Sequence to fold (937 residues):
Amino acid sequence: MSYAGTERPKASMKRFVRHNDESPWVRWTLTGVALVFLGLFLVVPLLAVFAEAFKKGWETYMASISEPDTLAAVKLTLLTAAIAVPLNLVFGIAAAWCIAKFHFKGKNLLMTLIDLPFAVSPVISGLIFVLMFGAHGILGPLLGSLGIRIIFAVPGIILVTVFVTFPFIARELIPVMQAQGTEEEQAAVTLGANGWQTLFRITLPNVKWGLLYGVILCNARAMGEFGAVSVVSGHIRGMTNTIPLHVEILYNEYNFAAAFAVASLLAFLALVTLVLKCALEWKSDRSRRQERMR
Amino acid sequence: MGKASKNRHVLPGFGLSMGYMLAYLSFIVLIPLSVLFVKTASLGWRQFWETVTDERVLASYRLTFSASFAAACVNAVFGTLIAWVLVRYRFPGKRILDGLVDLPFALPTAVAGISLTALYSSSGWIGQYLERMGIKAAFTPLGIMIALTFIGLPFVVRTIQPVLQEVDEQYEEAAATLGAGRWKTFARVIFPPLLPALFTGFSLAFARALGEYGSVVFISGNMPMKTEITPLIIITKLEQFDYAGAAAIASVVLAASFLLLFLINFIQWRSSRKHAAG
Amino acid sequence: MSVEVRNVSKAYGSFQAVQDVSLEISTGELAALLGPSGSGKTTLLRLIAGLEKTDRGNIFFKGEDATNQSARERKVGFVFQHYALFRHMNIFNNVAFGLQVRPRKNRPSKKEIRERVFELLKLVQLEGFAERKPSQLSGGQRQRVALARALAIEPEVLLLDEPFGALDAKVRQELRRWLRDLHDRLNITTVFVTHDQEEALEMADRIVVMNEGKVEQTGTPEQVYHAPANPFVCSFLGRANLFRARVPGDQAADSMEIGYIRPHEIQVSMHRYDRTSVPSVINHIYTVGPTVRLEMTRMDTGEPFEAEMGRERFQELGVRAGETVFADLGDLKLFGTKPGGNPGMNYRPVRQMQSVGADVQPANR
Fold:
C-alpha cells in the first residue's frame, strides 16, 4: 500500500500457499469458524433482503418496483451516477497521471487530500455542502437571488455524490500507473507523440482493467450513497429521492415489503458489482502473467 | 556556458493535470471543509463548548466510540482468521466467499441497515433465537455494534491478505526445522509481520465505523442518550436549522477522524521506512 | 548528423551524475559510452536524447543548439535498456507508432506506413512477427523490434542504452555483429552505452571512457587500450596488473608511482630474460579456452599478479603450480603520483630498468 486510507486493498487469492502444517482438526475448526462468521455476517443479511422482498409474493414485488415514485427514484439515481462517474473519471485520470508519472514534493499530502472523503462521515459530507450552498449557507443568498437551487434539489445530490465517490477511480489508478513506470511513455515521447497521444494510446490501454474496476466501484457507491444524500436531499417524493432514500421512506412508513423490494434492486447491483470485480481481477491477473513471460 | 532549461519535466501534461486536480480538490474538498470550520468558529468558544459537551451529545460520543471500537476489535480477530483461512486453506466455494468479503463495500448502507434490522429484531431469523436466550439485539447498542462489524469486515481481511500471501515459506520451514511447534511458529514468525497490516485494517475499520450512518440508523432505534449515534444528532440539528450547532459537533467528529487518518498514515510511513532500511 | 556536448552537468539531489562533460561525435560515427555503474554514461545518453534536462551546458545537433528542445522535438531514435515496447500493441503497431502519431500534415498514408514497417521488419529479420505481441518474443527479438521502432522515424541520431545488457552471452555476440553491420549499412550517427569493455572495443569507432561523471579519455579502441591516459582507463579496458614503484625524482623528492602491465604483456620464462625480469612463484594455473592464465606472486615484494599466454607457449614452458619462474615486466607503464597525493596523468612507458628488486627504477629519467 502506498498510502493510507486504502478502503479496499487489492488482494484476492493470487497464489495458493501450500504449506499446511497444522493438524487437520485445527484446520477444520478454523475454517468452520470462518465460514460461520462469514455466513452469519455476510450471507444471511444478503439473503434476508431477497427473502423479505419476495415475502408477499411476486406480484407485490413487481407492483413495488414499478410504482411511479420508485421509478422516479431509479431515474434520479441513474442520472446522478451518469454525471458523477464521468466527472470523477476525468479527475481520476488527471490525478493519476500527475502523481504517477512525475516527481514533485508534496505527493503524500496530495494523496492524503484525495483520501479525505473516506475519513469524512457521510452525514458530515452532506452537512458541509448544506453549509455552503444551503439557503442559510455561505453562498445561499447569492444562489437564491440567481434562482439556483442546489440544496434540497437534484444538483445538490449530484454534488454530494461527486464528493463522496471521487477518490475511488484515482486510488485505483494511482498504484497501477505507478507500478507501470514511465518507460513506455518516455519511448512514446522520443517517437514524437504529444501528451494526449501518449495518454490515450499508451498509458490508458495499459491500465484498462484498473480503470474499469475503479469505474465500477465508483458507480456502485454513487448509486448506493445514503447518508450524504439524505442530508441534502429534502426527501421530496418523486423528485429528490434516490433509490436508497426511497427505501428509507418506505421502511419508515412500515411498508416493509415494498422497502425490501426496492432494496433488492440495490442488492442485485451489489452482486453484479462483485461479479464484475472478480472477472476484472481475473482478467488483469491473466494479462499480467502473460506479460511476464520472458 | 549555458543556462538551465525551463521545463522541468520530460513527459508532457504536468501543468494541466496538476492544475485540474488542484482545482477539483479545492472546489469539491477544501473549500467546503473550510466552510465547516468557519461556521463553527462563528459560534464563539463558549457556545461551541456547550454544544459539543451537551449531555446528549456526550452520550452519543460514548456510544459511537465504544461501539466502533468493539466492532473493530471483533473484526480484527475474525478478520485475521478469515484472511488466514482464505489464504492458506482450500475448500469448496472458497472463491465465492472470497469475492463476497467485499460485499459491505458494494452494498449500499441503507440496504444493509434494513436487512440487519429485520434479521435481529424480535421476529427476525436471528433475533428470535437471541430473544430466547434473553439477548436483545435490535434497538440496542449491541445491534449497533453488529451493524458496524458488518461494515468493517472487509478492511481487516483485505489488508492482511496480501501480507499473508507474501510471507515467505522459508521462514516457517526454518522455524519448523529448529523445532518450533505450529502455534509457536505462528505467534513468533508469521504473526509479527502481520501486525502493521492488522493495525492499519483495525484503524480503517474503526474510522469507518465512527462515521457510519446508513447501516446503523435503522437498527439503533435512535433513543436519545441510549442508542443515538452522533451523525443522527447532527442531522437533527440540521433539521432544526441549528447550522452552527451541527457544524460544531461535526468538526469534533471530523477532527477525530483526521487524527485517525493521520495516525494510520504515520504508522504506514514508519513501517515502510523500517522495512526499507532493513 | 554530428552531436556535440559542451560543458554539460547534471545532478540528482546531492549526487553529481555528470560533471562538466564535453565531447563531439562526428556524423556517421558509432560511439560507445563506456564506464562502470554510476559513471554517468546513461545519464549523459538521456541528456542527449532530451529525456533529462541539463543543469548546465549545451547540446548541439548539427551545430544547432538543441538544449531547450524537448525529447519529442529532437527526433532522436532511442532504444531503452529494457526495450520499453508497448505491451498492449502488436509488433506492427509498435514499429508504426512513430509514424502514426505524426501531425496530420506530416503523416504518411496508411499504405506508406505499412510498407515502411514491413521494410523495417525485414531489415531486423522479423518479417513474420507483425501480428505478435511483445510478450511472445524472446529478448533478442524484442531488442530488434525496439531498434526497428526507433529507426521508423528516420532519426539522424540513434541512441542505445545498454542494448544488449539483458541478453544471453551468445545472443549478445550475434547482435553485436549484427548491429555493427546495420550501422555500416545505414550510416546513422550512433551512440551506445555499455559497461562491457569487450563490447565497446569490438563495436565502436570511438570510445568515451567515463567515470564518476567525468570523461576519462576519448579515442579509438586502439588508443584507449594501448595508450590509456590514466590508471582508471588502463584497468577498466582489459585486465591489468598493478605494481607500486618508487621512482627517484629529478628534483629532491622521489615519487610513488603506480605501474600497470597487462597479463599478456608479461613474458614468463625459466631464465632471467632481462634486467626487468622478476622471480615469481606460480600459485594457480587456469586454462580459459585458448589462453592459459597464471596466478603468480613476486618473490621480492610479495605482490600477486597475473600473466597470460597462448597454450602453445605454456606447453613450451612446461611449468606447474608451485614452481618458480621469471616474469619480465619490461612493458610496465607508469602513471605518476606526485608527493602530496594527487594522481597525475602522465603516461610514460618504461623500457629499461636499472635494477631489479623492490624498487623498479626506470633508466631514462
Notes: Residues 243-277 of chain B form the longest helix (35 residues). Residues 1-7 of chain B have pLDDT under 50 and may be disordered. Chain B has one domain: 44-165+179-277.
